[in-house]
Amino acid sequence: MEPSSKEKTCNRFEITFRDVKGFEKPMPSPRPRFRNAGRFPQAYMPTSYTNHKNFIQRQMPKLLLEGSIKLTVLFEMPMLKSWSNPQKQRMIKAYHSKKPDIDNLLKTVLDAANGHVWIDDGQIVEIHSAKRYSERPKIKIKVEVL
């Protein structure tokens, strides 16, 4: 039996996407870009990524959770437009094993939630994640404070 002095909390929420360029499906975290600022190189993230990350963050609750966190993230990815309707029906809930890579998708979510849902992503002690096909792209997130 677990001690009841600390009660576990669980939060669930969804990130939905729309038919606007850059906001139609989950976006993976890209590599940083570099430019010369005088004599020194300066690293920056592309504007499209920063806008996408802010779009995701605006749909997240501002919780600033403390303590150890267990995170479950399900990426529901769009189906190809060239697929027939019967093929689309067969592929609903099937695993999405193509690009983008799940680790880069997860990085975008972690960047958006850092300092918003939790204080720092160092608090995350366990992550479960999957990519599946869906009729409507979205990200389902479950955050548990242990």
Please, could you describe this protein's structure?
By secondary structure, this protein is of the alpha+beta class. It contains three helices and six strands, in the order βββαβααββ. The chain has a four-stranded mixed sheet with strand order 1-6-4-5, with helices on one face. Strands 2-3 form a two-stranded antiparallel sheet. Helix 1 packs across helix 3. The model is unreliable at 1-5 (pLDDT under 50).
Write out key terms for the chains shown.
alpha+beta, four-stranded mixed beta sheet, globular
Stretches with pLDDT under 50, minimum 5 residues: 1-5
User: What is the average of the pLDDT values?
Assistant: 93
Question: N-to-C terminal Cα separation, in Å?
Answer: 15 Å
Q: Helix coverage percent of residues?
A: 10-25%
Determine the strand fraction and express it as a percent band: 25-35%
So how many helices? 3
- In spatial order, strands of the major sheet run 1-6-4-5
Largest sheet: 4 strands, mixed
List the helices and strands and how they pair.
Blueprint: E1 9-16, E2 33-37, E3 40-44, H1 47-58, E4 69-78, H2 85-91, H3 102-113, E5 124-134, E6 138-145
Parallel strand pairs: 4-5
Antiparallel strand pairs: 1-6, 2-3, 4-6
Short synopsis of the structure:
With 146 residues, this protein is of the alpha+beta class.
